[in-house]
Amino acid sequence: GAVVSQHPSWVICKSGTSVKIECRSLDFQATTMFWYRQFPKQSLMLMATSNEGSKATYEQGVEKDKFLINHASLTLSTLTVTSAHPEDSSFYICSASPITGGRGELFFGEGSRLTVL
Amino acid sequence: KNQVEQSPQSLIILEGKNCTLQCNYTVSPFSNLRWYKQDTGRGPVSLTIMTFSENTKSNGRYTATLDADTKQSSLHITASQLSDSASYICVVSLRLTGGGNKLTFGTGTQLKVEL
Q: N or C: less crowded end of chain A, CB within 10 Å?
């Protein structure tokens, strides 16, 4: 099946630093990728929709200057958590759908666990 | 308000037993409904995806049903195994005017299979 890869799978950083998380579709192209965050024992919460070649669309309450999204190619989207604080510690997951083929199937990455000290 | 509610919130069963997870939704207009399995600390993995015209779909020991009239879906797991222990998430796709879909996630059912 289609594979979506995230990197890093986990990261620990100091408060005030920025962290970049990559999301790659390994065997298909995607014009749209999605970024979610998930707190323990809660469901996924959509943060933003990443659009290749254009600006991301952010959900209400998500700070676009805090969570920078870049979708530079049809196989790569990045999420940068700027000036991270302990409350940004969470599990970040991306997803993508193939442009062609499939049935609108949505494939998720393995997630990236961010811990801000 | 478009919502997806799952029940039970958590469930413990013995290995080999069957179980059924429920998903009720108010999303409209409906596009499709998906069930995902999410192991702890991992990304969700698709189990089934159903459109409004599909009443049932199976994937191995997993069988999903959909009643678009009552807006209910269930996921039945047969002969459970320890590896079935995970969170099961129901995701309903809302069809947007102008094209595209918006996903609404349920809060999940945490299943634990014990010996």
A: N
